[in-house]
Write a structure and sequence with these properties.
Elements (H helix, E strand, L loop, with lengths): L1 E3 L32 E7 L5 E4 L4 E2 L1 E8 L12 E7 L10 E7 L10 E2 L1 E3 L7 E8 L6 E7 H4 L10 E9 L4 E12 L1 E9 L2 E8 L5 E6 L6 E6 L6 E5 L2 E8 L2 E6 L12 E4 L3 E8 L5 E7 L11
Parallel strand pairs: 9-13
Antiparallel strand pairs: 1-3, 2-3, 2-4, 2-23, 5-6, 6-7, 7-8, 10-11, 11-12, 12-13, 14-15, 15-16, 16-17, 18-19, 19-20, 20-21, 22-23
Length: 308
């Protein structure tokens, strides 16, 4: 079933102006990826959304969605793949994995869960918070991820905790080859990477300052910090024509904002897209031009009570 959880807005008109950079929903006691669920939504225009009220995966968190524009291994162009933190076999820190599901019918049905493999991953590195981009030149996927093990023993996302973002590439979407470090900064989590106007942008949740940290790159393998902008995290992004839109979540719900210019530091007002017990949105545009989005929730059904 699907629930229409938003009111449509005219282009350029906010449903509700909200305070940007507000905190994400408070984590309930015992909250963690083993208690999270993935949900899928679609939209004709990116403003009015139909959100499926039944989860597409359990024990899964921080999803990323890629719509293939080229064939990739056994996956044909047009296939949707969502990567996420897989906690289906999680008992303690260090056992997180990157899982994935695929859909060949624009999200109506999904494959069984699989686990991505990262060959050459350094000892002790634990990959979480995936962001995946299909490379335009050869169609391979580049996976960006955060090493959650580095911050353990400190408060994750604190000013003292260093955060390293790494990358890996894949020719089939299932087995990735480790590349190396692309960005390092204190106090960030949840990277989101997008190629826009021949420049690579990395957005990450700035846990200390609040808002979103921005870094840029010319080749996608080494990023330079541009500072923090007051947007809601956890960030997701999509290129729609000549616009780059960044999505996030705060206590009000899922929001979006359009980047102004190309330096990554100026954005239009954040707009509330819909209110629902969900967070961590990541959008994509399908081959027919419609929007799709994956996000995490806190119960198996949006009609059920949550522990949020």
């Amino acid at each position: 079933m699907e629930a229409d959880v938003t009111t449509a807005v005219e282009e350029g008109t906010a449903i509700q102006e909200i305070a940007i950079g507000e905190p994400s929903p408070a984590a309930p006691a015992g909250n963690g990826p083993q208690n999270h669920f993935l949900f899928f939504a679609t939209s004709v225009d990116g403003t009015a959304w139909n959100l499926g009220d039944e989860a597409i995966a359990a024990q899964a968190s921080v999803p990323d969605l890629v719509a293939l524009t080229q064939d990739l291994g056994s996956h044909r162009a047009g296939t949707l793949i969502t990567y996420f933190v897989d906690a289906s076999d999680f008992a303690q820190g260090g056992e997180e994995r990157i899982g994935f599901l695929s859909s060949t019918d624009n999200g109506k049905t999904w494959s069984a869960r699989s686990v991505a493999k990262i060959d050459g991953l350094p000892d002790g590195v634990v990959a979480v918070d995936p962001s995946v981009v299909q490379l335009p030149d050869d169609g391979r996927l580049r996976l960006y991820f955060y090493d959650i093990a580095e911050g353990r023993g400190q408060e994750i996302g604190s000013a003292a905790a260093q955060s390293t973002i790494y990358s890996a590439v894949s020719s089939d979407g299932e087995t990735f080859a480790f590349e190396g470090k692309v960005y390092r900064r204190s106090g960030i989590t949840d990277p989101e990477v997008v190629l826009y106007n021949d420049t690579w942008y990395l957005f990450a949740a700035a846990q200390v300052e609040g808002g979103v940290d921005v870094a840029v790159s010319q080749d996608g393998t080494s990023f330079d910090d541009r500072g923090t902008v007051k947007l809601n995290g956890i960030p997701g992004s999509v290129v729609d024509g000549n616009q780059l839109k960044v999505f996030g979540c705060g206590r009000s719900g899922i929001t979006s904002s359009t980047m102004q210019g190309y330096d990554g530091t100026e954005f239009g007002s954040s707009r509330l897209l819909f209110e629902a017990p969900v967070c961590d949105p990541d959008p994509a545009i399908l081959s027919d031009g419609t929007y799709a989005m994956v996000m995490k929730g806190f119960a198996a059904s949006l009609n059920a009570p949550t522990n949020r």
